[in-house]
Amino acid sequence: MAAAEVLQGTQKLQSDTRPESRSLRRDAMRRLIKNRLSLAGLVVVCLFLFAAIFGPLLAPYDFLAQEIGGALQPPSSEHWLGTDALGRDIFSRLLYGARTAALIAFTTTLVSLLIGITIGLASGYLGSRIDASLMWLTDVTMSLPGILLAMLVNTSLKYPFASWFEDMYEKTRNPFFLNTWWLDFVLVFGALALISWPTYARLIRGQVFSIGESMYVESARASGADTRRIMMHHLIPNAIGPVIVAVTQGMGAAILLESSLSFLGIGIQPPNASWGSMLSDSLTLWRSYPHLLVGPSITIAVISIAFVYLGDGLNDALNPRQWR
Amino acid sequence: MAERPLLAHGIGGEMLAYLLIRAFRWATGLLLIMFLTYTMMYYGAGDPVKRMFLDTSDIGVDALTLERIRERYGLNDPLLQQFGNYLNRLAHGDLGTSIREQRPVADMVRATLPISLQLGAAATVISTLFGVPLGVLAALRHNRRTDFTIVGIVVVSNAVPVFVTGPLLMLLLVVVLDLMAVPWGWNGLFSTTAILPVIVLALGPLPIIVRQTRAAVLEVIHEEYIRTARAKGLPEFQVVTRHMLRPVLTPVATSVGLVLVTLINGAIFVEFIFGIPGFGGLTLEGLQQVDYPVIMATVVIGALIVMVGNFLVDLLYPLLDPRITDRR
């Protein structure tokens, strides 16, 4: 190869890395946006969060308002996606469903991440015997279909919670305990958090093993850095990437699991809006009124694909070691 | 053919120890799942006797009768004793009596499980028949448009849940294309109503199989023996079928555990959507009605299927890949 070509190559390389601030975060952002699919995913997820927060302001109708004599209307300029069997506006219900989904995704991800971090750290630090038994536990939980486990937990929590609420009402006469609409939410949170933690626990454990024993942590320790510095400057920045990716994917999975539970009639109960129950409600009517099915199913599909692509994009952006 | 490497190597002491450890691991795992489920039902299912009379509470059952029924079913015993009794009955093939339907759970399982097994087997065959060629094709066209398309389809079909693809495909085939009547119920595996359920069910394991095949082929594609096979003038088809597919078998076979999990998961939804009276439907019904003997039975059988599958893979693994035993 001619020397000129090599020189040209170096120059090209230099012009690619022209002086510009290159922090980890900015780099990751640039890589994320470069990938069109993950950018689309990001946009959809942002829209979803926007709808979840401001849904009630955007919704043209109240999600519970029933239009007398206006049931099962096909899509029109008044009702963009038509109305359901009770004359409720489907578009408004989808917006409220976004709120349900986002609430559950955030809470369950937070709770299961906390459980996962605790168990993962315990596994990584507290010796091989505890590690082996904790990993056996996660193995066993992962060998059952998640939805089966979630239904099981949900079903078995329902009765004790409901009767506890009744008892509390008997004792305190506080009307708060009569209103049980959010009980479904608590049950779904519990069920989903209990089945989602193994993924995080494994991830954290792996991070503890790989980073804690890495050369740079060792050399930082050798050059006299204290634990705090090692934590803040080495452990957390290096461990955070895979965790962010796992959280993104976990939120997508939690949204799906919530709609699965509601679809099967075990999660969020009727008066509340959930994409899953909207879908299963339409299963008896879709032959004559196909529009009932289109709205919720396309919404679920788009959101879950968006989360997958965003997760993939984040993975490529934040974990440069896996570059292909 | 498979016996030969086993005979050649002999089942050594280490091999036996490996199998025993694996068997112990899966057996204890199953026991743990049973205990956890039983505990959840013990504390969470409410009073089964009250549930039994839920529909008929107005005929007035006196407290003495209730107490007698409780005593008869051993419901006053402490948790561990009840669980021990349950295991004992289970060992004798007794799965208990359904609280809601008042008939042996074993009968209910016997009526529903074969249907789901047929569905699952058909779905496995279909997803393998499509998945392996797609995976090979993607690997052969690595990082080209065909590869990206296949990987994209796999990612999408993995992301979209069964309960969305099922109804959407129904909508497409019944309303838009008008190809079939609404598939509802069960008329045997070889009837038109079974086509769509099997396809939807097969979409669950398909991504796993495509991904495993693609990765395995990518691993061997640059091996010397593949180059040799090409160099000696074998047609590409034979290179693929004779030389590449052999090593691909191992990772595909070892993903059986995952495939079984997705199939059980899928069966619950597919049978609900298409009104098939199968094992998934029984599972769902048991959970919706908090019928704890049915819940126990379905969870135990579901876990048993997955774990036996995993154990079989552990057994098969050294046979499929002789390097495992050589390496020790």
List keywords for this structure.
heterodimer; A: 324 residues; mainly alpha; 11 helices; 73% helix; globular; B: 328 residues; MetI-like fold; disordered N terminus
Tell me what you see in this structure.
The complex is a heterodimer of chains A (324) and B (328). Chain A is an all-alpha fold. Chain A is built from 11 helices and no strands. In chain A, α4 packs across α9. The two termini of chain A are 26 Å apart. By secondary structure, chain B is an all-alpha fold. Residues 1-9 of chain B have low confidence and may be disordered. Chain B has 16 helices and no strands.
Which class of the domain at 112-292 in chain B in CATH terms?
Answer: Mainly Alpha
Task: Briefly note the structural class of the backbone of chain A.
Answer: mainly alpha
Considering residues with a beta carbon less than 8 A from a beta carbon on another chain, report the largest interface and each chain's count.
A-B, 48 and 48 residues
Shape of chain A: globular
- Assembly status: heterodimer
Roughly how many Å is the radius of gyration of chain A?
25 Å
Q: Enumerate how many helices of chain A there are, as a single number.
A: 11
Number of strands of chain A: 0
